[in-house]
Amino acid sequence: MLSNKRIQELELVMEFEKVEECFKEVSSWIENVGRKRLKEMTNLDDSLEMLLQAQKRFREFDLTASEYCRRGQEALKKMDRWEDFSSVDVHSYRVKLQTYKDQLEEFCTELDENRHRICETVRLYEFFDKVREGIFCMEE
User: Fold this and answer.
1) How many Å apart are CA 67 and CA 72, to the nearest integer?
2) Closest to 85 in 3D by CA, of 93, 74, 77
3) Cβ contacts of 81 within 8 Å, gap of 6 or more
4) Virtual CA dihedral for 132, 125, 54, 58, nearest 10 degrees?
5) What is the pLDDT of residue 84?
6) Number of folded domains in the chain?
7) Which InterPro entries does the UniProt record give (predicted)?
8) How far apart are CA 138 and CA 140, in angstroms?
9) Per the domain annotation, does 88 fall within a domain?
10) What is the mean pLDDT of residues 81-86?
11) Would 13 be classed as within a structural domain?
């Protein structure tokens, strides 16, 4: 039983090394591109026209970012079996895996929050434009 468990752990380590390239690529993109672009989109302009342009740029970015999130999540699913192993030899790999998982979850959450914030801000500005038009028509 011990021998079988050890073989399974070694197989997981080999599998981790294959999947780690994907983790590294996703992680690198998140740190070097994704977070920077999200920070750029934090300050939204105060006109509807500029806001709609920002929303368009965000949607383009969102397609790429969502693809990286999806790839990272698929790679994490391949590593679900790690939960069952707690030996010292596997511990360092579990720590790496948890680091990747935390980074990916944090970025995907920030992406969702920005998507929602931009959408709600556009709706609010569109509403205020309609109200402003209504007031202008009533004044005439």
Assistant:
1) 9
2) 93
3) 12
4) -150
5) 63
6) 1
7) Rho_GEF_signaling-related
8) 5
9) no
10) 63
11) no
